[in-house]
Amino acid sequence: MNGALPALDPVAAWLQSLLGRLTPLLAPLYGPGDLELGWPLALLALPLPILVWLLLPAHRERFESVRVPFFEQVAAATGVAPRRGSAVLRRTVLQWVLAPLAWVLVVLALARPEWVEPPLRKTETARDLLLAVDLSQSMETKDFRGPDGGRLDRLAAVKLVLDDFIARREGDRLGLVVFGDAAYLQAPFTRDLKACRLLLDETSIGMAGAHTVLGDAIGLGIRLFEASEATHRVVILLTDGNDTGSKVPPEKAAQLAADHKVTIHTVGIGDPAATGEARVDLGALRRIAAATGGRSYVAEDRERLAGIYAELDRIEPRELQAASFRPRRPLFHWPLGAATVLLFGFYVLMGTRLALRSLVRRTGVSRA
Question: What three-state secondary structure class fits 317?
Answer without folding.
Answer: coil
